[in-house]
Structure formats: C-alpha cells, structure tokens
Amino acid sequence: MFDIKWIRENPQAFDAALARRGAEAASARLIGLDDARRAHIARLQEAQERRNAASKEIGKAKAMKDEAAAQALIDEVAKIKSMIQEGEDEERRLNEALDQALCVIPNLPLADVPDGADETGNVLHHVHGNKPQLPFINKPKEHFELGEALGTMDFATAAKLSGSRFVLLKGQLARLERALGQFMIDLHTTEHGYMEVSPPLLVSGTALYGTGQLPKFEEDLFRAGDSHYLIPTAEVPLTNMVADEILGEEALPLRVTALTHCFRSEAGSAGRDTRGMLRQHQFQKCELVSVTRPEDSAAELERMLGCAEAVLQKLGLHYRVMTLCTGDMGFGSQKTYDIEVWLPGQDTYREISSCSVCGDFQARRMNARFRPADAKGLRHVHTLNGSGVAVGRAMIAVMENYQNNDGTITVPEVLRPYMGGLERIG
C-alpha cells in the first residue's frame, strides 16, 4: 500500500520504480482517482457549510416572523441533508476505488536490488561450503527414492486420503521431520533472540489483506468456510500481531518465530515438482518475523538472513545465497535474499528460505505504527519476514546429502539429541 500524497509529489519516481518490476505506469490513473475523490469531498464540504448556514438563517427568519422564508430554508436544509447522505455514499465509493487500485500494486524495489525480468536475473550473493563428495554412490538418489525404499515415505496412501501433493511420513522419517522443526525453533529462540508464538492456523481475510496475499493472490489460498482461510505461511498471523497497534519505540525491534503447518493451493504449478515433497499443499515451516524502526530494517534483513543460514550451517549443508532481481521478488517485498540448498539427488540448488524486507508496505495495509521517543507524531513500522527454514525441504536436503550406499541416511550430529541418540535411519 502506498501514500497517495507521496505518489502525487513523486509520480515519475513511482512509475520508474514500477517499470523496474515490469509493471505498467500507474501514477496518472491513481492521481486521477484521487482528483475525483478530492473534488467530491470539496463539494460535500461546501454543501455541509451551506446546510449549517441555512440552519442558522431559519432561526433568524422565524424571529422576524417570516414564515415563508423559514419554510423555504427548512426545505433547502432537508434537500441538502439528502444530498449529503448520497454524497457520503459516493465518497465511500471513491475511497474504495482508490484503495482497490492501490492495493494490487507491488511494492517498490530498493535501489540496490538488481534489475531483471525473472529468476535468470538473480545475482549470486555468496556461497557457503562445498558440494558434498559421495564417491561411494554412482548416482545419488532423490529423497523420494530413499524414503520409499525405506518404507517410511508413503505417497500412495496420502493420495488415497487427500489426493496429489500430500505425503504420509512414518517411523523414523516422521521423527526426523519433528526433530528438524524442534531444532529450528530451539535455535531461533535460545540463540537468536526470537520469541516463540503458537498462532492460529485459520485467519481472516483482513489479516491476509494486511500482509498482501489478498486480494491479488486468493487463488493460492485454501478457504475454510465463509470467513476464514488456512494460513499459507505463519508470516500472516505473526505480522498481523501489530495490526492497528501503536507501539512504543522501546518495543522495537519485535522478533517473533513460529513453527506451523502451512497450506498452499500451488495454483499455476501444474506439472512442476510432481514427484516427492518439494511442492506440497501442506508442509511445515519455521517462520521468522521482525518489526523494526525504518532506520533499522536494512540491517535487520542481514541479521535475519544470518539466522536462517545458521540452520543450514549447523546441519552441515552446502548452499548459496541469491539476491533476487526486481522481476522475481514477491509482491510485498522491497528486497529479498533466497537461500538455495544443494540437493545431490537432483544435482541442483533449490530454494529453502526467502528473507525479505517489506518497508512500510504491510504496515500501511495493517495500520501498524509506533511512537518515536524523541519526536511528535506517529510513524509506520517496517516489517520483515523469512523462513528459518522450510522443514520439508530441510528434510529433503538432509536425506540426499547424508545418504549412504546401502540406502540408509546418517543423522546429522545436531539432530541426534532430538532423535533419541539415533545415528542412522534405515
């Protein structure tokens, strides 16, 4: 969401930023909607002023016993009152028209975000570690080959229960998934200073509007009844904790984390990643959310990236970090880093975490503000979110990177306390 006053004052900069995202210029259309709204409000104010003046004149006419003039004024006031009621309805319509036009426009990229049309324009930020050497394996297996051979990753039964893009984990793999999630939430709460939250998995449309999923991306959501949706990510409830709030500056930065199930319809992904667990309708993710002062959000993004990287480092996984280009960023992001973990079975890197700074884009939609300690007035907070990390993809990475020639999987040392001391799966 944007400040229409800023757009009026900076139309060329606004359109240039949209062009970097591959979006059409919008300032003229938005200013036109705002002009119509402002003109109508001015007419409405004139009518209200005339009603007030006529109401005073009624008393004067009656005092002079000019009943004809008084009745004419009474009729005029009644007519103006009706016009004002209709005008207020029109004002609401014009406000909604402007809001609807604004709310589907993507966030503006920061100056240091690389330009590009799609993922081919992403830029390598840095690489951690080296690709694992598995000389004892002719061709590394993919996670679903390993899991199905172990009898603990069951897609057929899941399809019988729920259809495609679901999995049923059993035995040691079910425990590995639980261990990974517990390890992540413990790491972020005990070492990284995040407060653990257990949020609702059902949220209102208002909450999804606040973080930018609605109205533009409704097809990606699972609706539950008339007034709720299943969360696509814990970013939604965690960020909306500050919706309609005025925080004290001393409360910032606010850092919260949650380990939850997430639900996505995967609209538009037909034919992509149909084998295995890479793209599921239901999955677990450890989410990180920060709420900061505007001056601190750039540094907070780097900190959040480091927190997400720590998960992979402690798991001993090789990965790279990419700075997403303007054409590959999410709708609400000003700047995004993707962490891509190496998967030997696929012989490629795959995204396992995205860390984004949104500036005041979500805060304006949510009306989330803070009161500066040394200044008058209120300011919008800045919000950030990141995966710390996706549990299912972390399990895939562990399985493929720690696979053994006999089809078993070595348990990374950091996970063994969560696995009852188990050193090998299978």
TrEMBL record:
Keyword Membrane belongs to the record: no
Binding positions (ATP): R264, S265, E266, E351, I352, S353, S354
Keyword Protein biosynthesis: yes
Reactions it catalyzes: tRNA(Sec) + L-serine + ATP = L-seryl-tRNA(Sec) + AMP + diphosphate + H(+); tRNA(Ser) + L-serine + ATP = L-seryl-tRNA(Ser) + AMP + diphosphate + H(+)
Superkingdom, taxonomy of origin: Bacteria
Coiled-coil regions listed in the entry: 37-100
Subunit structure: Homodimer. The tRNA molecule binds across the dimer.
NCBIfam families reported for this sequence: serS (TIGR00414)
Function: Catalyzes the attachment of serine to tRNA(Ser). Is also able to aminoacylate tRNA(Sec) with serine, to form the misacylated tRNA L-seryl-tRNA(Sec), which will be further converted into selenocysteinyl-tRNA(Sec).
Domain comment as written in the entry: Consists of two distinct domains, a catalytic core and a N-terminal extension that is involved in tRNA binding.
Protein name in UniProt: Serine--tRNA ligase
Organism expressing this protein natively: Pannonibacter tanglangensis
Taxonomy of the source species: Bacteria, Pseudomonadati, Pseudomonadota, Alphaproteobacteria, Hyphomicrobiales
Name of the gene: serS
